[in-house]
Amino acid sequence: MRKILLKNAKVVDDKGIRKSDLLIEGEKIAAEEKRGFFKEEESKGEFKVIDLEGKYIFPGIIDAHTHYLLYSRGTVTADDFYQGSVAAAAGGVTTVIDYIDFPGDGNFKRSVAERKEEARDSIIDYNFHQVVQDFNKKISQNLADLKELGLASIKLFTTYKDVGYMIERDQWSELFKRLKELKILPQVHAEDDSLIQDLKEVYSKRNLIAPEFHPAIRPGIAEALAVKDMGGEALKADMPLYIVHLSSAEGLEAVRELRSRKAQIYAETTPHYLLLDNSYLKREEAQFYFMTPPLRNKYDNQKLWQGLSTGEFQVVATDHCAFSRAQKMQSDSSLEILPGIPGTETMLPLLYSSGVRNNRITIRELVEMISVNPAKIFGLYPEKGSLELGTDADLTIFDPNLEKKLTAENLHSAAGYSPYNDFTVKGYPVMTFRRGKLIFDDKLRAEKGSGKFIFSHNSSLL
């Protein structure tokens, strides 16, 4: 069984920052000791030694919100599970949590099995959230299967009623009761559908449907209304609620209000809502900055950073949804452009460069939001998101001084473009270990299909 000694790095996890040497044996973390502890064994050549002077060791990064091989609007994303996982590994990500489309007949055993088959080529480990778009006696009964299948959460929508995603308001109460009974965490894409439909009609009549009008058609107040509505339901049920990709100052204020009423609200945001703004939607290639919810203004960026700095967000994820250049440019109408951008590979360097280097967050807080917390919230901890002895040796080696320009040519998504083309970051992952194996450094070193499904237990919130 191979042994690897990682020496002279600074180790960062939820316990703090320390100067330690880490020993990997096979797929697991075998030991963590003070620098020099293994000097005798090292001199005898008992293990491979990697000197990481000047670098950090993080527990493997987890992107808790991805859409690889997503079928949408008659097409499929450019990044399947293989290419998406290659990009992830290049960005220091060792695990993703993707989504499973709702099976119309409520057969979750089949939907999970089919999605596992679609993910078989991944080079990193993975778990899933199950989308739920309806609720009846059969679905209520079948939700219990998700726990047995190793899923900890479901995703709900308060918008997209026109394409069948939205679960009807009168079903929420019974659904939340059932989720509480089963200890399954509800996530929600929160935007008020009725307001959006009204605004869509108004703007469409005036032919104001260019990308720059997308934020007006789906405004921050629509997010806030849905957060309050769904959060109130969770409060009544005495259940935690996880808000995905919170994008606006209004949405964050709604979260604060609910928390003041003792609601258990947990929030995720993304790098693009922190770093990009709606001025990008006026560019010639505005389609490359088009996602839902839409980009907001610089004030929202500032308010979200403040929320991140004061611990109001538990997780940062990416909502990675990478269509190709050609797919994105098929339309210039905000009602038809395929929504979504690539993001998994750039999450860690963007957050470090713009967050830690600018003293908005500490390096420990960064690791908690993109590794420790997602592992705990989605039932993967301590096997993932920790440096505990005996757990999976998922490790991200990070060089705080390495500079890189985030152009498409420097990245690995099949999208063929980078929404962060204007950004040069300082601080970048240089090695990614998945279960003790180096899978990416200056090049890809993992075999196709070497990632695996990781069974999830109860969320730490339940």
From TrEMBL:
UniProt superkingdom: Bacteria
Post-translational changes noted in the entry: Carbamylation allows a single lysine to coordinate two divalent metal cations.
Q: Which GO terms describe its molecular function?
A: hydrolase activity, acting on carbon-nitrogen (but not peptide) bonds, in cyclic amides; metal ion binding
Q: Which Pfam families match?
A: Amidohydro_1
Q: Which residues carry this modification: N6-carboxylysine?
A: 155
What InterPro entries would the database entry show? Amidohydro-rel, Hydantoinase/dihydroPyrase, Metal-dep_hydrolase_composite, Metal_Hydrolase, Metallo-dep_Hydrolases_sf
One GO cellular component term of this record is: cytosol
According to its UniProt record, which cofactors does this protein need?
Zn(2+)
Supply the alphabetized keyword list.
Hydrolase, Metal-binding
Q: Which residues form the signal peptide?
A: none
Looking at the record, the residues that make up the Amidohydrolase-related domain are 56-438
Question: Which family does the entry's similarity section mention?
Answer: Belongs to the metallo-dependent hydrolases superfamily. Hydantoinase/dihydropyrimidinase family.
Quote the PANTHER family the UniProt record gives: COLLAPSIN RESPONSE MEDIATOR PROTEIN, HYDRANTOINASE/DIHYDROPYRIMIDINASE FAMILY MEMBER
* Protein name per the record: Dihydropyrimidinase
In its UniProt entry, the species of origin is given as Halanaerobium saccharolyticum
Biological classification of the source: Bacteria, Bacillati, Bacillota, Clostridia, Halanaerobiales
